[in-house]
Amino acid sequence: MRVCIFEQTERVKAAVYFGFFVLTAVLFMRCANTGMAISENASNTVPSFSEDSTEFYRVQLGKHLFYDPILSRDSTVSCASCHKQELAFTDGLPKSIGIRDRMVTRNSPTLTNVGNRTKFLLDGVNPSLEAQVGVPIQEHNEFDFHILLVIDRVNKVPKYAEWAKKGYGSEITDWVLKNSIASFERTLISDNSPYDKFLNGNYAALDNGQKKGMELFFEKLHCAQCHSGPDFTEERLTNNGLYEVYADSGRMRLTEKEMDRAIFKVPTLRNIAVTAPYMHDGSMETLEEVIKHYESGGHSHPGKGEEIVPFELTNEERQNLIRFLEALTDEDFLTNPDYRIEL
Amino acid sequence: MKTKHLLVGLLIAGASTVSAQNTLELNLNHQFDGAAFQYGTVYQLEGRAVRLDRVQYYLSGFEITHDGGQTTTMPDTYVLGSANITNYSLGQETFTTLEGISFDLGVDAARNGMGTSNWPSGHPLAAQSPSMDWGWPSGYFFWTIEGMVDDTGDGTPNKMFQFHGIGDHLLRDVNGFTGWTLSGSTVTIDLNVNIAGWLKAIDLESVGFSHDGGNNNVAVAENTNPNYVFFDPASLGIEEEAQNEHFIHADYTMAYAPTIYYDLATGENVDIRVMDMSGSVVLETQDQSPEGNYFVRKELPDGTYLISFTNGNISEQFRFVVKN
Lengths: 343, 324
What we know:
The complex is a heterodimer.
Chain A: H1 9-16, H2 19-33, H3 54-66, H4 79-82, H5 129-138, H6 147-155, H7 158-168, H8 174-185, H9 194-199, H10 208-220, H11 223-226, E1 237-238, H12 252-255, E2 264-265, H13 287-296, H14 315-326, H15 331-335
Antiparallel strand pairs in A: 1-2
Helix pairs in contact in A: 1-2, 3-7, 3-8, 5-8, 10-14, 13-14
Chain B: H1 2-18, E1 21-32, E2 35-36, E3 42-45, E4 48-66, E5 70-74, E6 79-82, E7 87-94, E8 98-105, H2 109-112, E9 143-149, E10 159-165, E11 172-177, E12 186-194, H3 195-199, E13 209-212, H4 215-223, E14 230-231, E15 247-251, E16 259-263, E17 270-276, E18 281-288, E19 291-295, E20 303-310, E21 315-322
Parallel strand pairs in B: 1-12, 10-13
Antiparallel strand pairs in B: 1-2, 1-7, 3-4, 4-5, 4-6, 4-8, 4-9, 8-11, 9-10, 12-14, 15-16, 16-19, 17-18, 17-20, 20-21
């Protein structure tokens, strides 16, 4: 599932001499030669369901539950409080705030293409999107509630009971609640950023600066060693040297293994320009800060990926890299009315 | 030829016992270093005063030995042990004479990875109140042991501690029990559970909230064997005393929807009723076991409530508070 374009280093390097236009042409031919259609990279399109399918009612139920604060104990907070569409389903805060202004210990991650993930939570300890629904419900700092009382509440809402019946042929149970929300989350597909358009053959979708930034990202720097694949993550579990000593023990909080200390899942970079602040603790406000962090080679940490080594960028190169990351923003995703409910 | 005869013999034996399904029950008699266990009682543990407010734990991986050393596994049997509950059903098995049993403390990795939503309500692995899971796979609490310890030396427990053991690495074989000759259509296995055993040589003052798989919970796991916690009372000649007191205790983990732990001095089922202070019934259920965990599964306004347990012989009331 690696992105095909810059796979063959020698050719890329040779092609650089002919300028970017030639470069892209060569690379596209190479992809075509290997029989891999470029458009496969951005594989998904938003599925559409016929109005009467069970899938339609499952997503409908899940979407409304996602936006409904009755899932939280005092009915003040919904999933959407921390996962807002216009911010690619993040919340713009360093660390999220749940019920009664309690602060969550981590930064809210984007739900862009979350259906493609197999590991959830910033440390990847949770293997299922359904199970992930249960986490905020019970968390003291998020909904601070109990699944059984949530089920009692939602079953009392006539339209939810009706959709559950049409989607699942049953009342709302533990499974129906979790699967319906997960079904909605699986529709959150972003595949129409300028970068995707470029991959699909619209070479003008990226300007020259962005193309140079793209080359830095995939070729010259090691970003794509970790931020790989169509979603810029293949869920590698590693460390990027933010600190020598982390306040958050990362994956170790569950595994209790020293080798998992401060190990996090490589996050997707899709829609990254709208999901500031960055990192598990929201400690970086801008992409410029993030890149300067990588330029420095980061702090030493036993779990740090070996690709994280110091490098130097000119001001212009840094701007190009940022502008490439901005080309991962998918306006259609941020404004798609299917992801909202009418209030 | 010999083997063939043997096979036929086994088949007949098998066929004849299939009709004789036995009901297996497990009695877990909870104790604290020899004293009958009750919530809220102050005990001495290694020179410090200790009080417990919640003790629950999972048992899985049951395997019985029967009829001359044959073993049968019971992969679908799970027990959610609660310190106020003695009687548990292990389901149906086929045997003539039960000779022993072994099991694990915790939930096996396969089921621990499945989450609560796959189980019908009431199943030990379905969502519980108070919760026995973190809300994500690999997230059952193998045990919850919550209470207070005296850290000032005045004999009054004042410092809170909570163990919630999480993670596959905490699963422990409990030493097997053998040498029994139990038979009958219902066979009841009697084991004592010494809750104090789990807490031995742990500095309770520094435990705080150990909701993880870390050192404190590893220490609890390690304390399970040998014979610290689960033991066969018959082997020690201990006789069971008849219970003549009602024990009722409110768990305020969720102060807005408490759970009432109860163990009543009656053998008959009871009707349970929750009333507000004006006497209106807000929740009601009939024909419940005389020991159990009653989840006040209703969103109630702040206030004091009364729970009553009644049958032909007893009528017991207990006051608790709801705080949102």
